[in-house]
Amino acid sequence: MSRPLDLTVMMYHYIRDPGDVAEADSGIPGMSVKTFETQLDELATKHTFVTWTDVRLALQEEKSLPGSACLLTFDDGVCDHYFNAFRILRERNLSGLFFVMDRRDADGLILAHKIHFLLAKAGLPALRDAIWEKLNPSQREQFGQAEQKYQLKYPPISLDSQINLLKAVLQRDLSPDVDPILSDLFEAHVGSEKRIANKYYLNPDQIREMVAGGMHVGGHSRSHPWFDWIDSEARAGEIKASADWVQQFEPGPWAFAYPYGGLSDDSPNLLEAHGFRAAFTTQTQLHHINPYLIGRLDGEEVAQEGQGYA
Ligand SMILES: [Zn+2]
Questions:
Q1: What is the pLDDT of residues 55-82, one digit of tens each?
Q2: Burial of 205 (0-12, 13-18, 19+ CB in 10 A)
Q3: What is the rounded CA–CA span in Å between residue 191 and residue 183?
Q4: Per-residue model confidence as pLDDT tens digits over 176-194
Q5: How far apart are the CA of 260 and the centre of ligand 1, in A?
Q6: Residue 15 Cα, ligand 1 centroid: separation in angstroms?
Q7: What is the whole-number distance in angstroms between the Cα of residue 296 and the centre of ligand 1?
Q8: Are 75 and 11 in contact (CB under 8 A)?
């Protein structure tokens, strides 16, 4: 185990403006390009930006990090990262760590992104109704039980909370059942899933160009499941696929980000066995004791809270 690490890690997902090439009229909102740039300006006044290599060397106790170090990370391998993040980082001579899924041309969208598209298209009540209509009686029973279970965590106090409740049900308990249902709804209401997915995610050429431009790439699984929801064998398969994918872009050891921030006790060992030297969570934390549980701050939340970060 390495020494504890003091490090501010920023986490980003969508960085886009309405109608730009990343948003592509999907209606799916994200952090605006301007807000992202303003946040980089603010971070630069308080922090020294570091790269994945710097963090890896610190974990290997070969070189220590500067004081107030800050690492920029980007999840899900969406094309926003090529068109907006990479462009802006390169202008500023900064590096980012980009967590990409292992994906092929024949793959569609991950469940979470199908939900984003359909929510933007139909809204929450209509999407919930459309899914409900396609469930059989036993799936409906499971749906109802799952909703009850997550209602404590996501009480119906706001639209966001209600959306999170539906996401929890769909992305966990009902995930194998609703995945094909959401693909059907996608084809009917949005368009060709495979065609859209191939534009929506970074392709290998873009990733190569980003790495050549000083960016780093890390693993984010193959199918983006909750790691506490699948079994150990499935977790091992997801992690191995991820290592096989990232090794074509840069030599290891690499970093990993847990899909949805889902944790399991065996993940650190599995990750280490497959060449990952660190893993990032979605928990808000600036002092990190375990290199496989490095916390992060959500850039969009920080922007909404103003000067909320330390
Ligand atoms: Zn993710």
A1: 999 999 889 999 999 999 999 999 999 9
A2: exposed
A3: 10
A4: 999 999 999 999 999 999 9
A5: 5
A6: 14
A7: 13
A8: yes
